[in-house]
Description:
43% of the residues lie in helices and 7% in strands. The protein is mostly helical. The longest helix has 18 residues, at 156-173.
Amino acid sequence: MANKRKANRGKVAEDLGKPSRWRLQHGAVSEPLRGQDPDTGRPATQRRMVDSLGQMLANGSITPAMHEAGCMFRTQFRAAMLDSIRVSALVRVSGGSDDGPTEHQAAARRRVAEALSLFGGTDTACGSCLWHVVGMECSVREWAGRQGWGGRAINHVQGQGILVAALSVLAVHYGLVPRSMVA
């Protein structure tokens, strides 16, 4: 009797054509894009995770210019290599060297610092929101729960308002919206 196994009748096979329940709990997913795998040529279905800026643009919370300003800041942030993703130090590799940031990275870091200086740096609510939500790509809810302001937590709705305000200032800074339209 010890060798007999119970039949697994309670489990229903998961539909592999849809995102799993685990995947859906981590944020919205776009509609499937059908195409071909570039390596094998086989048909493939790809789904994209929708980012915070994309969701806010789709909801009408921000304008296309504000979305573009956020994308520009994110691109500069990535070029500056300020995100938490790091590779092994080149000093460990034979023949490698660690000369510090390249000229491209240093220029991108200056542009990020210039943009953050509009808000008073990363110690302010807008600067911290840009750093974490746009640069590090955290969710607004995650940033608002982690950020303390005067000893009190920020509600995620207030966090979204802070992000909208920061993106509107960035849009003017990058020249996407004329200064005459803001005031």
